[in-house]
Amino acid sequence: MIECLQICFGLTGEVGWTTNILEMFWLSTLLTKKKYNRPLVIFSGSNNHKQTTIFGFGLVLDETIASYTWLLKSLLEVMCQKMPSVVVTDGDEAMREAVRVVFPRATHRLCGEWSQAVEEFSLQDSLWANQVFGKKEMWANAYLRDKFCAGIRTTSRCEGINSVAKNFLQSKHGMLELVQNLELMVRDYRNNELLVQFRSIDSVPVMTTSLESLERCAASVYTHAIFGDVRNEIVGVASVNLVRLQRSLTTKIYTMDEYGQPGREIVVLYDKNMGRMKCGCNFWNKYGYPCKHMFFVMKHEHLPNIPNRLVLKRWTKNAKALEAYEEKIDVGADQACLLHHGALHSACHWLFFLGSQKYDLFQMAMKGIRNLCAHLEGYVATEDNVFSTKGDGVIRDPVAVRTKGAPKSRNCRGRKRRCTECRNPGHTKRRYPRKKTSHGMEMEDGCTTGFDSDALEEIKMFNHMEEVS
């Protein structure tokens, strides 16, 4: 049964997951109803610019536990057995069970805003609503407040991908056209990422806060999208008040509250020797960058830069630095080749983008590529069967779904259309060949509609007498 599920699986060359850049992904399904009527599963996630990125896609036989399990295991295999930390789905039971089996240690989060939905649609007495409320550990913020979800709580990004994918898919597309058009869709997402990455590296935001050294450090480390959120936390330092300061060995215990919320104390622990800082609000665990309470401690300690332990690499400009792709992973030959190909593919995207900006940069890039190719070809020439391929599998199109409507007529070649009145070929009911008699009457050739037998005999005899005379 598992063999027949292996219809299609495509990768986009995105290796961010394998380098711990993207710790979460979404599962979305889109039915290609017109031709195959098969679920198209798209694996997507969030990059260091908080943009949507696509890992891969698969076309499975049906929406069952076995299909989703095989697909997730295939994804895990090409990702070198590195599991995500968070998986967000729409609550499908088959998908939920497959995630539990394949990713047992991952946090499975369901999409939903419960309180607003219950009030808006009056679901207090609904059986379905009670069943969903029983899964509150998978979607309620109170249970997921210490889980890093990159600020994502719904599957709205999946719905956006589905909307975009429909513009690239048509009912007449076969398997080859399907994969090619999905690759075109992925290129749009990659191009958007390259543009914002270039802006983050090539431009510097204007410093607007009084803590200029900390703000400048954040601007040099984080991407523009994250820097905007970090700066809001730096501005929020003005609303924090110090209640008391205690010391325990090498750890300082800061107790503080916020303006307008007296009595609601928040504790921050800071160890200068170890460079550690932990806040009781769990903001860093949830969003991945320091909160205003941490920045208050930095201000009080006169720290010029953000401690390295508080900088999450997946939000930095160098999250996809080339050094991240050079780690050696003990995998098989096929998986290693796939991993290396994906790493080179991602690294070359940035090379292509930079080399296309100016003509002199273009010449420099072309010269470097030619020299590097000639250098690598020298090593390849000394080895045998380097470019040998394995032809151990053939992927064919799945069976197309039969469309509704009248079946096509068969064995009709050579048959002519007949008139529905006289059953003679060569004309139709609306196009009778008509003849005029000498009395100005019209007569239908070969048809007897509108005349009785006696009238026909008189007309024929009269016409015969006129022809003889």
UniProtKB/TrEMBL annotation:
One annotated GO biological process: regulation of DNA-templated transcription
Compositionally biased residues, Basic residues: 426-438
InterPro entries, per the entry: FHY3/FAR1, MULE_transposase_dom, Znf_PMZ, Znf_SWIM
Top-rank taxon: Eukaryota
MF-aspect GO terms: zinc ion binding
Keywords: Metal-binding, Nucleus, Zinc, Zinc-finger
GO cellular component: nucleus
Residue ranges of every copy of the SWIM-type domain listed in the record: 264-302
Keyword ATP-binding: no
UniProt region (Disordered), positions on chain: 423-444
SMART domains recorded: ZnF_PMZ
Stated role: Putative transcription activator involved in regulating light control of development.
Family listed: Belongs to the FHY3/FAR1 family.
Name the record gives this protein: Protein FAR1-RELATED SEQUENCE
